[in-house]
Amino acid sequence: MHCWKTINVKKQYGSDRLFFISALIGAGVFTSYYMLLAIMYADPLSDQNFLLFMIGMLAIYPIHKLLHLLPLLGSRKCLKISLRKQLKLCPTISLYIKEPVRKSRFMLALVAPFAVINTTIIALSIIWPAYSHYFAILLAYHSALSVTDLIYIRNLARSPRHALIEETDTGFEILVPQPIA
């Protein structure tokens, strides 16, 4: 095996730039989705269940991380999970891959939270249009949270089909089998 490419989005873009891109995407998703829902539904909005909305806001991050983990459960020997506090306040969950994983499985792990959570939020906003403003905020927040995953997916889509992905200190390495001479 040899390393075809190393991807480190935080190093490539920088934390400030990633935050700015995420904020722009979140604002764009909120604006466009809220306007779409306002055009589709004329129901008056309700401010009831604000507590459920706050619970949803707090639950999105751990659910997002759990959905990253589910496609990789078959290879749990190669997973390492760590909890850290950032700024002594916000807990962060980190998943590390200690052994190479097939590209298809890794891409499924990256896209799973985006697909499942955003589909659920969109379905709930159709079921309960009176809370569409809450769902628009949740969709925007989760879309902004998923920006780094989507950038990794875009980079991995261009890699060889039968590659393996391994996480190192320098980022994700795309490994390809070395041809036998």
Description:
The chain has 181 residues and is α+β, with helices and mostly antiparallel strands. The protein has one domain. The chain has six helices and six strands. It has helices at residues 9-13, 15-40, 50-69, 103-127, 132-145, 147-157; strands at 2-7, 79-86, 90-97, 101-102, 164-168, 171-176. It has a four-stranded antiparallel beta sheet. Helix 3 packs parallel to helix 5 and helix 4 crosses helix 6. The radius of gyration is 19 Å and the shape is elongated. The protein starts with a strand and ends in a 5-residue tail after the last strand.
Q: In terms of topology, how is this protein built?
A:
Layout: E1 2-7, H1 9-13, H2 15-40, H3 50-69, E2 79-86, E3 90-97, E4 101-102, H4 103-127, H5 132-145, H6 147-157, E5 164-168, E6 171-176
Antiparallel strand pairs: 1-6, 2-3, 4-5, 5-6
Helix pairs in contact: 2-5, 3-4, 3-5, 4-5, 4-6
Task: State the gist of this model.
With 181 residues, the chain is α+β, with helices and mostly antiparallel strands. It has six helices and six strands. The longest helix is centred in the first third of the chain and has 26 residues, at 15-40.
